[in-house]
Write a structure and sequence with these properties.
The complex is a heterodimer. By secondary structure, chain A is α+β, with helices and mostly antiparallel strands. Chain A contains eight helices and seven strands. Chain A is elongated. In chain B, about 30% of the residues lie in helices and about 15% in strands. In chain B, strand 9, helix 12 and strand 10 form a beta-alpha-beta unit. Classes of the chains: A alpha+beta, B alpha/beta. Chains A and B meet through helix 2, helix 3, helix 4 and helix 5 of A and helix 18 and helix 20 of B.
Chain lengths: ~200, ~625
């Protein structure tokens, strides 16, 4: 009985000898293993069904069908994965609610006639935010470094935090910035340069 | 040295000596029970309560009296079941002293039979639907109605105090009958139940004046909107100890709840639903700092309330709850509020984040304080990194459940074998794990089997069906094999991924203590099921779906089905004649063939769902049209 279950000894590498029109190496390795496994399954089934005298023809036929049809990887199956619908339903509404409440902050630029307002939540991080600011106010921000702040331009993005202090944008983790930023100000000229390095 | 007769009481835990002096026996018998079919009182010489004609008690009755005094101390149902099998006398006496009745399958015995045998029951637990029905594998309204039970108990157990129901259909009328029939009623716990609504809760709240526990857990309420919280008696002190309603999907009367909490000094457990905001939670917490279990409700402010507006000191409120050991809820969490729970983390033994969409960073800030944590439920949004943080801190962890935030098959999963291995390295005392993932390796599962020898429950759900070890492309046989081999205390197992008959061979060979086994999309042939049915003597609950097991395999379990609570097989290779053969061979087995009309793909004559269970009652009379009971 054990010999029939000796799965690992049977290595049907049909893929190697198969004639195809595709480029070599394009076939998904996962598919190959599935395919290989199913071949082995079929072999085992016909062996054991002879031995057990089960309704071999019916179950054989069913598995022959399985073998012909492609692996059912993409279809949504009822009750799978086994997560109770109560649990599934309770996660969806929450997500959209979080997205609905944006964090709107005023952005002022030295010399600009009026302010703008942006939603911090739509940006994934500092690069996107800075790029957006550049687009809105038509200027370039310099290169950020921890030591020297923004070098290479006369502008520096700053923000007022919860304590009322004016901070350089980019020093703290993005999540922390999002929750502590009350407003943004793009400083220009000598004031901006004074914010580099040191304190 | 014998105690003075008048001091002898039920609390004396020495066995009373075997004594034919009637007075002693009369005293004890009048205390413990009414009668066991013996007419007339038994009196004896000397001072005593009764001094009628002397009648020497016959030996049987003496034995029963003694037994009663002894058996009343047996608490577990396993012990009681064993005692009841000794002889008829023991069976009778055990039945009279059993105060907690557990019915694992509501159709295995009728209410009439149960109440006739067990005359003095104070607490009842009944389980109904099969678990796979939770996943919509079966049409609704299959059965498991509480109605016949509450009807029978209303007359049989007027002193009933506690009812625990799981996966039962309970109507408002049932709850009304319950509230009307049991004046001493104290505890109602409904787990995964349906059929009732806030109207029924209102009746229970208003009529059950001694109510201590009202727990609604993962139950589905009907659509009605009755203000049940306002129905608790408004005046006087409430003896409420536990109020759990986090599954109630309707807004509640918060002012009434606040008043209720204020007048409930014994309240220890309070689990709010998502309609309670964090501001409202604060108001309740400051009124009830004695709480040990809190379900936080939404844990966010309703829309329109901005951050930074005058907000109460949530951290202080948590800090004031010095006895808090269990935290759950976070139904609509705004992670900014998470730091508020820091003061209680060090004392937490149970933390349920399974509705909280938080990332690894957010989790870390909390979990690094939770040294005493024993139970942890969480979403896989925390990723392997989050699990590593858990492993680093929670050395006492006993139970872990990782649920998928996105329950689909073909996506990149945030947790994998990395998280599982980390947990196994850090949490050596782990006893129970439920882990949803997209990819897994045999190596990681083997590592867990070696690192966590105390595992009793191992449920791994690789969400991609037939998915092999993603590093070696081999089936997951060896991993699960290692689990059954190395985890000697394993009683519950759920398997997944690509599995051949070899995996089942392992289970049959090594899983000698396995009581519950869940199988989905696994196995190659009848041999798989045979290995299990022939190899696992303790198997009680077997649930299988979409696996190639046929009639021959089913036959191989004939010797065992009377010892099982149930067998469920859906979308397997069973035929009606095959199931019929079982029904004929085992007359005390109820063999239900359930037709799933949604599954129209079946061209051939296979059975959609087979659900069979032992029963003293034969085919049930409340089966719906889509259920056929074979005989």
């Amino acid at each position: 009985m054990e010999s029939k279950v000796a799965y690992e000894n049977i290595e049907l590498n049909l893929k190697a000898t198969e004639l195809r029109l595709g480029l070599p190496g394009t076939h998904d390795s996962q598919e190959a293993s599935l395919f290989g496994a199913r071949n082995n399954n079929k072999r085992q089934l016909s062996d054991t069904s002879k031995e057990c005298g089960s309704k071999g023809s019916a179950s054989d036929a069913q598995h022959a069908d399985d073998h012909e049809t492609p692996p059912p990887a993409k279809t949504q199956i009822v009750g799978w994965p086994p997560v109770r619908s109560y649990r599934k339903n309770n996660l969806q509404p929450k997500k959209s609610e979080a997205e609905a409440s944006g964090i709107y902050v005023k952005v002022s630029m030295d010399g600009a006639p009026y302010l703008r307002k942006i939603d911090l939540r739509i940006y994934k991080g500092y690069p996107e935010l800075l790029k957006a600011l550049e687009n809105i106010f038509k200027f370039t921000i310099g290169e950020y470094s921890e030591r020297d702040g923004y070098k290479g331009s006369e502008y520096a993005p700053t923000y007022e935090d919860k304590d009322g202090d004016w901070m350089l944008v980019g020093d703290v983790p993005w999540d922390m910035f999002m929750t502590s930023c009350k407003r943004l100000r793009i400083m220009k000229g000598s004031e901006a340069r004074g914010l580099g390095g040191g304190v | 040295m014998r105690k003075d007769r008048t001091e002898m009481s039920e609390d004396d835990d020495r066995s009373p000596p075997l004594d034919l002096r009637g007075a002693d026996i009369a005293e004890s018998s009048s205390k413990t029970r009414n009668c066991s079919g013996v007419t007339g009182s038994v009196a004896g010489p000397g001072p005593g309560p009764s001094s009628m004609d002397f009648q020497a008690p016959y030996p049987d009755q003496v034995l029963e009296n003694v037994l009663e005094n002894v058996l009343q101390f047996l608490s577990t149902r396993r012990d009681r079941n064993a005692a009841s099998l000794v002889c008829k006398s023991w069976c009778r006496v055990e039945a009279l002293t059993r105060s907690e009745l557990f019915i694992g399958n509501c159709y295995s015995v009728s209410p009439r039979r149960a109440t006739a045998r067990f005359a003095r029951v104070q607490a009842v637990a009944i389980k109904g639907r099969p678990r796979f029905a939770d996943f919509n594998l079966m049409p609704p309204n299959w059965g498991a109605f509480f109605a016949p039970w509450v009807l029978a108990m209303a007359t049989a157990y007027p002193w009933l105090e506690k009812v625990y129901l799981k996966r039962m259909s309970v109507s408002n009328d049932d709850l009304t009958l319950l509230a009307d029939s049991f004046p001493s009623f104290k505890e109602l716990v409904l787990v995964c139940c349906d059929g009732f609504g806030t109207g029924g809760l209102a009746v229970v709240a208003s009529k059950c004046r001694l109510l201590r526990v009202l727990d609604l857990i993962e139950s589905e309420l009907s659509d009605e909107d009755v203000d049940w919280i306002a129905c608790f008696p408004e005046s006087g002190t409430s003896c409420l100890e536990s109020l759990i309603f986090d599954c109630v999907e309707r807004p509640i009367n918060f002012e009434a709840l606040e008043r209720l909490v204020i007048r409930s000094p014994s309240l220890k457990k309070l689990r709010l639903n998502r309609f309670v905001s964090i501001g409202q939670l604060y108001r309740l917490m400051v009124r009830a700092p004695q709480l040990t279990h809190i379900g936080t409700g939404a844990f966010s402010a309703p829309e329109g309330v901005a951050l930074g507006d005058l907000e109460p000191d949530y951290t202080a409120a948590f800090a004031a709850c010095k006895s808090l050991v269990c935290l759950s809820g976070f139904r609509e969490i705004l992670a900014d509020y998470l730091p508020a729970i820091h003061p209680v983390c060090a004392n937490l033994t149970s933390l349920n984040f399974s509705y909280a969409n938080i990332n690894a960073e957010q989790l870390k800030s909390v979990i690094l304080h939770c040294h005493k944590l024993q139970t942890f439920w969480v979403l896989d949004s925390i990723c392997d990194e989050g699990l590593q943080a858990v492993a680093a801190t929670c050395k006492d962890l006993r139970e872990l459940r990782v649920f998928p935030i996105d329950a689909q098959e073909d996506i990149e999963g945030p947790v994998s074998e990395v998280g599982l291995e980390a947990i196994s390295e850090g949490c050596r005392k782990l006893q129970s794990i439920l882990y949803f993932c997209q990819h897994m390796t045999n190596a990681a599962v083997k590592t867990m089997s070696n690192n966590c020898p105390d595992l009793e429950v191992f449920r791994l759900c690789i969400m991609g069906r037939h998915r092999p070890d993603h590093l070696t492309d081999e089936p997951m046989d060896e991993g699960f094999g290692a689990i059954v081999m190395n985890c000697k205390k394993l009683t519950r197992l759920a398997v997944s991924g690509l599995l051949t008959d070899r995996a089942f061979n392992y289970i049959g060979k090594y899983g000698k203590l396995v009581r519950t086994l869940s199988v989905a999309f696994a196995g190659d042939s009848d041999m798989g099921l045979k290995y299990v049915l022939e190899g696992c003597p303790r198997l009680q609950k077997l649930e299988i779906r979409d696996s190639p097991f046929g009639d021959a395999a089913l036959l191989s379990g004939l010797h065992h089905y009377y010892n099982m609570r149930f067998l469920w097989m859906s979308s397997c290779s069973l035929s009606p004649p095959g199931c019929q053969e079982i029904a004929r061979a085992l007359p005390r087995l109820v063999v239900e063939v359930i037709s799933n009309e949604t599954d129209k793909l079946n061209g051939d004559d296979t059975v959609d769902i087979l659900y069979m269970y032992r029963s003293l009652e034969g085919p049930r009379e409340d089966a719906p049209g889509f259920v056929t009971i074979l005989q």
